[in-house]
Specification:
alpha/beta; Rossmann fold; 4-stranded parallel β-sheet; 5 helices; globular
């Protein structure tokens, strides 16, 4: 598993810059997506939608194809936040990503004060996260077998 923390490094999407030599951060993002067998997106909701930095990242890959048939998991850490999850589902469907239903979950994370150790200590949260990851891994393995 590779955690990519480069969302903030991507320039604002500009189709005039999306050419044979895109900005370096965009090229790196696209390469990481191409190399990935699957993608897990965990995003908060902001103002009833997808945070701008994530939407910007997706804008950079709408037309380049890195998400086409890529198994994707959407993790939502707040069951009350449904708008971002719905928006991401729509955007990724348009991009022809393969959303893995058993890997798309709303986790019952009890507030902002819980840290990684608290998540792992919660059987309900850790179990749901583990089963979502297992479903995503299985979908990626199935896709590799089909190739």
């Amino acid at each position: 598993m590779v955690i990519w923390n480069g969302l903030g490094d991507l320039p604002h999407f500009n189709p005039d810059l999306d050419n044979a030599t895109p900005p370096a951060a965009v090229a790196e993002f696209r390469m990481k997506l191409t190399e990935a067998d699957a993608v897990l997106i965990s995003s908060p909701e902001y103002a009833h939608g997808v945070p701008g930095v994530l939407k910007n990242a997706l804008d950079w890959v709408v037309g380049s194809g890195e998400f086409v048939y890529k198994p994707v998991s959407l993790i939502n850490a707040s069951p009350r936040s449904t708008h971002a999850q719905a928006s991401l589902t729509e955007t990724l469907t348009v991009m022809t990503a393969t959303l893995v239903p058993d890997a798309c979950r709303s986790l019952p994370v009890p507030g902002k004060s819980i840290d990684e150790a608290g998540i792992l200590a919660s059987p309900e949260v850790a179990g749901a996260l583990r089963s979502a990851i297992e479903a995503l891994v299985q979908a990626a393995m199935n896709q590799q077998t089909e190739k």
